[in-house]
Design brief:
The structure is a single chain. By secondary structure, this protein is an alpha+beta fold. Among the domains are: 16-178, Bactericidal permeability-increasing protein, domain 1; 301-333, no CATH class. 16% of the residues lie in helices and 50% in strands. It has helices spanning 15-28, 152-174, 244-258, 372-375, 383-399, and strands at 9-14, 34-43, 48-66, 70-87, 102-121, 124-143, 176-178, 198-206, 209-217, 238-243, 262-265, 273-284, 287-297, 301-316, 319-333, 339-350, 353-357, 361-365, 416-420, 425-435, 440-451. It has a 7-stranded antiparallel beta sheet. A 6-stranded antiparallel beta sheet has the order 2-3-4-5-6-7. Strand 3 (48-66) and strand 4 (70-87) form a beta hairpin. Helix 3 (244-258) crosses helix 5 (383-399). The longest helix is centred in the middle third of the chain and has 23 residues, at 152-174. The two termini are 43 Å apart.
Length: 453
């Protein structure tokens, strides 16, 4: 099975990129990771009350991906406690002088395990780390003030309060940490399948490298989660993987769409509208294949022909007189197969731009049609149509770009340009490399998170 495990679309986000995303979220949303507690504990029978103010702040997140689907988060915990004991004045007596306030600094960390969840945003979804049902793996805190010595009981109380504050901040204040942009749920080139896209995820690893695989089942295709494999080219990459069977389905629809598709009026010195006919394409590991495509003119043309007729006049049953007569005939004809092409071609990335290597395409001309119909500008159609197919899938899933028709422009410098919900950050990814892992076509990209301007 393919590296996708059969899933039509897979996005792999490296652990390194996720670390940057979580750090950015915690930095921009620091207020959510802080909890203040103000408690007054009266001991009326002794005429004493204790006042405690505890401010707890979580910071410095560290994410760890654990196969097959666990995600661990570790935060440093810093807390400042201000403690004071006050004596209550007896009736008619003087107010006792309160003892000085005691400031205590505590330091430690909390380690929690969470699950991923896909969150609905309008008609899209994004993945978030669900902190609402976290599992506490460990919590440790100690007094950081060297000039303060607290009894064990007091330390235990402060530790319990700081732990409660940390859990409250994560599960209530924060709730979810977004780790992806919104993913589209409709891919135009696939047509109206009437099948909801199913979202799931998996943690994949290779050696010490780990990545989060977002998996989209788009055509009710047979899938196997255990077959999903790590396939990033570099540890810092974000990878987009398309199942070859999905691309072949899309190329079949592209072939149908190309039937009668107008190329250029008056191309190659031939009057009339040139159209494509009988287009068949498919993808194989390593390249796309143009099985056949023809160019025709769909405009009927008036053609003048001079024909010779032989007219015979019978003199008697055994004799006849014959003569040749030349006659001009006007006919309307449709030009057929002005050219056809076939061969292999491969998309590649050049300085962050999609290009096509069309050197493997053979063009046969049956009429004086200019070569630019096929070869100019990397053969915008049909090769540009194939790039359109790839961008329709990648663009719609990753960037919600409504690429509804075949396009001539292939210079998509940003294959991802989407806000990350609830973070104030924009995810921007520049394509870096095209690869062909087992059973898939993939684009490796450099992902950057920047503040939304």
């Amino acid at each position: 099975m393919s590296v996708n495990g059969g899933f039509g679309v897979m996005v792999q986000i490296s652990e390194q990129t996720l670390q940057e995303a979580v750090e950015s979220f915690v930095s921009t949303q620091a207020r959510l990771f802080k909890v203040d507690i103000n408690r007054t504990i009266p001991l009326s029978e002794y005429g004493i009350e204790h006042s405690l103010i505890l401010a707890t702040q979580l910071a410095n997140p560290k994410i760890s991906l654990l196969t097959p689907d666990a995600i661990d988060l570790v935060f440093t915990v810093g807390a400042i406690a201000r403690y004071q004991t006050r004596m209550v004045a007896v009736p008619g007596g003087p107010t006792p002088t309160p003892p000085p306030e005691l400031d205590v600094m505590l330091q430690g960390q909390i380690h929690v395990r969470v699950a991923g969840a896909f969150v609905v945003a309008a008609d899209h979804k994004y993945m978030a780390l669900d902190l609402r049902h976290l599992e506490i793996r460990s919590f440790a805190i100690s007094v950081g003030s060297s000039n303060v010595q607290l009894p064990a009981s007091a330390t235990a109380v402060l530790s319990a309060l700081a732990r409660r504050s940390a859990v409250y901040a994560l599960s209530k204040n924060v709730g979810r940490i977004p780790v992806s942009w919104t993913l589209g749920t409709d891919i135009p080139i696939l047509g109206h399948l009437n099948l909801p896209i199913e979202f799931s995820y998996r943690v994949v690893a290779q050696g010490n490298e780990r990545a989060l695989a977002l998996l989209l089942r788009v055509m009710n295709e047979p899938v196997d989660l255990d077959s999903v494999r790590y396939a990033l080219d570099e540890p810092s990459d974000t990878g987009v993987f398309l199942e070859l069977s999905l691309i072949n389905y899309a190329l079949g629809r592209l072939g149908q769409a190309l039937e009668g598709y107008q190329i250029f009026p008056d191309s190659g010195g031939v009057k009339g509208d040139l159209i494509f006919h009988d287009a068949h394409l498919h993808v194989e590991p390593g390249s796309f294949v143009l099985d056949n495509i023809e160019v025709q003119s769909r405009t009927l043309q008036q053609v003048e022909r001079l024909i010779e007729k032989l007219i015979c006049t019978a003199i008697d049953p055994c004799d006849a007189y014959c003569e040749s007569v030349f006659e001009t005939v006007l006919e309307w004809v449709q030009l057929d197969q002005l050219a056809n092409a076939h061969g292999r071609f491969s998309p590649y990335i050049d300085s962050g731009h999609f290009r096509v290597d069309a050197s493997g395409i053979s063009v046969n001309l049956a009429a004086p049609v200019a070569l630019l119909v096929f070869l100019a500008a990397d053969s915008l159609i049909p090769l540009g149509g194939v790039i359109s197919v790839v961008l329709m899938v990648v663009g719609k899933v990753l960037a919600d770009r409504a690429v509804e028709n075949m396009i001539d422009e292939k210079d998509w410098q940003l294959i991802i340009d989407q806000p990350v919900p609830g973070t104030g950050l924009q995810a921007r990814a520049i394509p870096r490399l095209v690869t062909w892992p087992d059973g898939a076509f993939a684009v490796m990209a450099e992902l950057h998170l920047t503040p939304v301007s």
